[in-house]
Each structure stands twice: as structure tokens, then as C-alpha cells.
Specification:
heterodimer, A: mainly alpha, B: alpha/beta, Rossmann fold, Alpha-Beta Plaits, 2 domains, four-stranded antiparallel β-sheet, 13 helices, about 30% strand, disordered C terminus
């Protein structure tokens, strides 16, 4: 083809490898996710707690600065697993807000105008398509979860007057593992629910509902049957139980209501499997109408 | 080996047999896929693209198995679906570039060819507009542009003129003819508009109820089906018929002096007038026509139901 000739010519150059096409999908999905000003606004808002935490770490490690702000040079906050647990919890809940906005943007544009037949007629599989979208979401949510958390951890290691990092590496591992488990779950949930709803605003609401409505149901089950197993429907409760264990922070939940880590892991895996099943049902080039 | 080889292909969807034992080799530069609604045209295309697995038999594209090697096949195919299928939120050039990158073109080349493809199909001036703002005709054209941008070896067009006004349809047909003329791309065009296939294709596969009703080279078929003629005569019709047979025509007589015949290549209408004059037979009406794609299609439809009764040439007479 040539613009000035308006004639067709075949392409004879080299083609990219199949795995790079996953990155193409991820790149375009990432662009779609961040093309909205609201996405940028949410990102900035999500990073505000990190800035506050950064100031906290600075003050905790600098007596002179504490004296200047009127703290009298006393240690105001302890930088330990508990401190990082609070940061992780705040960032993870902000990640839910961000995910509920960007996950629908990543996938509903493709579904609204039935782009799947064209997309999947290219040399990518359904799994590849979903992996690309998943990677875009994971990268986006990482920007507000484990990346700022680990940056704060590194800053604390740098700012601490005493050797700190060696004795607290488990906190870094916990921050990373806790964040990745949460954002992977959010990515599955966001993709699965968005794939079944054409309207983005509705999808955003449904993602929130999927987290909090079962929690309410679980609360009812717990209260009526007087059993702790109702909390298995309560995603916020499960994560609030899991994160301290990953960071090695003291567990604040009443032991009578505490869930075993295995049960929590099994429930999270089950939730992911349900999401994968939903995606498998929906992400198809052609629907077969039965009847 | 043809472009597309079908060997006892059977496709079952939702416990229904949609394609039933299709066997044949498609070798034309532009292959038309014809059939009434529900004949299985779109299912065949979807099977060739690897969207539906065959339940029996095989379908091969460029010698590759349509299900097992679907990744390789899709890399060599450009597909323009029948219905709306695009990302409305993207500009035209971004959408075509995205599709070209997915087909394996490096980003820079994909952008260059996206611009070229859009100019080629006539959307150059609208390439920075969002696809959702395009008219129906423009949406058809952008689907064609994305199917062309990566330089496929086989272009599958599913109802390419669907919903187009006469001018847009003529433009689309012209584009298809240009692509065919260029020669580097084979075409598979599905349509239920005989005229579209007639104008663009050299081979036709006609489906009915999931079976092959006809698979033929249109030009050869036209050549082999010589001129049909219907006469209304007054006089010694029987003797006239015998004389016509003597010229080498196949003919049949009907009550009321009606005669149907097929003229061989070397016989012209003038020869019939000469015999009629010699025998004192009046020819009151003469109706001559060439076999059209419509005849081929209708015959294929008849063949499927009454293969022996109506399928042969003799039966038509």
C-alpha cells in the first residue's frame, strides 16, 4: 500500500513473536485504563496516604525535625510491622476503588461494540487476550499497592539510624505477598464482572457490591448460625485476617472469630476460579445459542 | 492442495449439526460462499478461523488444520466480520494499528500500514475520528482496512456489502475487485447477494442445510451451460424438433408448439429460422438467455432436494 498511490501491496517484513502480542494487548489496555482524567485523579488520591506515611517515617527517624514541628523530640510513631500493616490496608482499599474504575475501562470497550470476533481472529488465544488485560490491571494496581509500600520500606531502611532492614525483611515480603494476592483477586473480579456488564458505571457499582454484599450475607450467616464460617463470605474480614499474618504483625481479631489461613486461601482460590469460569463463559469470539 | 480443503467436515453446535460432511477443495482466487440464511456459511467461516472445533472430519487452510494450527492460520488471514465489530472508543487509525500489531507487525510498521490501509479504503480523511462516530458504510470500510493492514494471504469477507447504499456498495465491490486483481491475496466472500458474488468471484461454494449443494468454477460453469432457448411455434412442431436435433441441439417439445432447447456453440438462431422456413413452421416467439449465477444457484438448490429429477440438464428440458 502507498498513501499517494492508493494501491494495495502485501506486507513482506518480519513479524513479532507471539508473546509480544500479549504485551500489545496489555499496552493498549493500559492506555485505555489511564486515558481518563478520573483514573489519574484516583491514582493521585491513592498516593496521598503514602506521602503522609513518608513524612511519618521522616519524623520518626529525625529528632531535629520532630523538635521543629513541636513534638519535643519524642518518638511519635513506631516504624514496625504494625505501621506497614496500616499502610498496606489503606493502599489495598484504595486499590479497590481504583480497580472498580479502571477494570471496566480495560474490557468493556471491547465488548460494547462486539470487538471480540475481530480481536480473536488475530493470532492470539482467549487465554492470551485475558492475560494481556490481566497484566494491564496488575501493573496499574501495583502502582498504588506494593510499589509505594516497598518504596516506603526502602526509605525506612535508608533513614533508620540503626541497622533495620536485616531484621525486618519479612515485612517487605509480607507487603509484596499481601499486595499481590489482593490485586490479583481484584483483577480477576474486575475483569469477570466487567465482562458481563456493558455499562462501565454499572460495572463499577457491581465490583463494589461483589466485595461488600457477600460480606453482609456472611455477617447474617455468622449471626444466625452462631458460626465463624460465615466470615468466609466476608472478603474484607478475610484480608484483614491474612495481612497481619503475612507481615508478622499482631493479630487484632478475636481468636473465636479468627479463620484458619488454609480456609482463607481456599476461599480466595475458589473466588478466583469462579471469576475464571465467568470469563471463560463470556470471552468468546462467537456465542452458541442453545435451544 | 487448495487454499481451503474440507474433508468430511462436520460441525455440531448446541447438539445440532450445522455443517454436515463437507468435502471439497477450494482453489479459486476469489471464492464465493453462497447459501440461504442458516445454510452454514458463517459457521464454516468460524470453523476456518478456529472458533468452532470440527466434530468430525477436517478443514484445512493453506494445508494447516483449522483447529490445531489456528494460531498460524489466523496470522495469515484477514477477517471482516458480518456484524458491527470494532472498538468505538478508539480513533480509526489507532484501531487499525492495534489490529495490525496484534497480527504481528512491529509498532512503527503497523502505524504506517494503518494509515495506508485507511487511505486505500477511502477513510483517509476520517482516520482520526472515533470509530463510534462513523456511518454504517464507514464502519464496513474500517473493518476491511483492519483486515488488510497486516497483509494477509487470505481475506475472509462476511457479507461485505451488508447495509451499504448503492454508491458505498459499488465502492466496496470495486475495492474487492482491485484486491483480487493485485493477486497476492486470495478472497473468501460470504454473501447471500448473488450479484456481489457474480461480480467478484471466480469460484463458488453453495451451501444448503449444512451440506454442499454445489462447488464450481463460475466461468467454467457458464461456458459449459450453453445458451438456453424457448420457442413458440405454429405448424409441424414434431418434425421441426427432429430437424433441430439433427443440428446437434438438445431439445424437448411441449403441447401448444412450445420447444425448449440448448444451442451448441456452433449453432445460431439464424439456423433455426432457416429450418423453420424450409418446413413452413412459424416461430412466434423466441427467448434466449445465458446461464447466470442465479441459475447455477437455483439449480443447486433444486439439486439438493430433487437431485435426480431436476438436477440434470435433461430434466430442465
Amino acid at each position: 500500500m502507498a498513501v499517494y498511490k492508493h494501491s494495495y501491496s502485501a506486507y513482506t517484513g518480519k513479524v513479532t513473536s507471539s508473546w509480544t502480542r500479549l504485551l500489545v494487548l496489555a499496552r493498549y489496555a493500559f492506555d485505555e485504563a489511564w486515558s481518563s482524567k478520573i483514573s489519574i485523579g484516583l491514582l493521585v488520591f491513592s498516593l496521598l496516604p503514602c506521602i503522609v506515611s513518608l513524612i511519618g517515617i521522616y519524623l520518626a527517624n529525625n529528632p531535629l525535625a520532630r523538635a521543629l514541628v513541636g513534638g519535643g523530640g519524642r518518638q511519635m510513631i513506631e516504624i514496625d510491622a504494625q505501621f506497614f500493616l496500616k499502610i498496606l490496608e489503606v493502599q489495598c482499599w484504595l486499590a479497590l476503588v481504583l480497580a472498580s474504575w479502571i477494570a471496566p475501562r480495560v474490557i468493556t470497550f471491547d465488548l460494547a461494540d462486539s470487538a471480540l470476533p475481530i480481536l480473536l481472529s488475530h493470532p492470539i488465544s482467549r487465554l492470551g487476550y485475558l492475560l494481556g488485560k490481566f497484566m494491564a490491571l496488575l501493573a496499574s494496581l501495583s502502582a498504588v499497592t506494593w510499589i509505594p509500600c516497598l518504596l516506603l520500606f526502602i526509605y525506612e531502611s535508608y533513614a533508620s539510624p540503626t541497622p533495620w532492614i536485616a531484621g525486618n525483611l519479612h515485612i517487605a515480603a509480607g507487603l509484596f505477598a499481601g499486595s499481590v494476592i489482593w490485586i490479583a483477586l481484584l483483577a480477576f473480579l474486575g475483569l469477570a464482572l466487567s465482562s458481563w456488564v456493558k455499562w462501565r458505571v454499572v460495572a463499577t457499582g457491581i465490583i463494589f457490591a461483589a466485595v461488600f454484599v457477600p460480606a453482609g450475607v456472611g455477617g447474617i450467616v455468622t449471626a444466625v448460625l452462631r458460626t465463624r464460617w460465615g466470615f468466609l463470605f466476608n472478603l474484607p474480614f478475610m484480608m484483614s485476617s491474612l495481612w497481619p499474618r503475612l507481615l508478622g504483625a499482631p493479630d487484632t481479631i478475636n481468636p473465636d472469630r479468627s479463620l484458619p489461613t488454609g480456609a482463607i486461601a481456599a476461599m480466595l482460590v475458589l473466588a478466583c476460579m469462579v471469576c475464571i469460569g465467568m470469563l471463560n463463559k463470556r470471552i468468546r469470539a462467537r456465542e452458541v445459542v442453545r435451544g | 492442495m487448495g487454499i481451503i480443503d474440507l474433508d468430511g467436515l462436520e460441525v455440531r453446535l448446541a447438539n445440532r449439526t450445522i455443517l454436515n460432511g463437507l468435502t471439497g477443495s477450494l482453489q479459486g482466487n476469489a471464492i464465493g460462499l453462497l447459501g440461504p440464511n442458516g445454510a452454514g456459511k458463517s459457521t464454516l467461516i468460524n470453523t476456518l478461523l478456529g472458533f468452532h472445533p470440527p466434530s468430525k472430519g477436517t478443514a484445512r487452510v493453506f494445508g494447516l488444520d483449522s483447529h490445531r494450527d489456528r494460531g498460524q492460520i489466523r496470522g495469515r488471514i484477514g477477517y471482516m466480520p458480518e456484524n458491527d465489530s470494532f472498538i468505538g472508543n478508539m480513533s480509526g487509525v489507532r484501531f487499525v494499528r492495534y489490529m495490525a500489531e496484534l497480527a504481528g507487525l512491529p509498532p512503527g510498521v503497523a502505524l504506517e500500514r494503518a494509515h495506508e490501509a485507511l487511505f486505500y479504503v477511502g477513510l483517509g480523511e476520517a482516520r482520526y475520528r472515533k470509530v463510534s462516530t462513523y456511518s454504517l458504510g464507514m464502519k464496513q470500510l474500517i473493518k476491511l482496512a483492519q483486515a488488510l493492514a497486516h497483509g494477509p494471504r487470505l481475506l475472509i469477507l462476511d457479507e461485505p456489502t451488508n447495509g451499504l447504499d448503492p454508491i458505498a456498495r459499488a465502492r466496496m465491490i470495486e475495492l474487492i475487485k482491485e484486491i483480487r486483481k493485485e493477486g497476492s491475496i486470495r478472497l473468501l466472500i460470504s454473501s447471500h447477494l448473488l450479484r456481489d458474488i457474480d461480480e467478484t468471484c471466480d469460484e463458488v461454494l453453495i451451501l444448503k442445510n449444512g451440506r454442499i449443494a454445489a462447488l464450481c468454477n463460475i466461468e467454467e460453469e457458464r461456458r459449459s451451460n450453453r445458451s438456453f432457448m424457448e420457442l413458440e411455434t405454429v405448424g409441424a412442431t414434431e418434425r421441426f424438433s427432429v430437424s433441430i436435433r439433427g443440428l446437434g441441439c438438445e431439445c424437448a417439445s411441449y403441447p401448444g408448439g412450445r420447444i425448449k432447447l440448448i444451442l451448441p456453440e456452433h449453432i445460431e438462431a439464424r439456423d433455426l429460422y432457416v429450418i423453420a422456413s424450409e418446413q413452413g413452421v412459424q416461430i412466434r416467439r423466441m427467448n434466449q438467455r445465458r446461464d447466470s449465477l442465479e441459475d447455477i444457484f437455483l439449480r443447486a438448490m433444486d439439486n439438493d432436494t430433487e437431485r435426480t429429477a431436476n438436477g440434470s440438464l435433461q430434466a430442465q428440458l
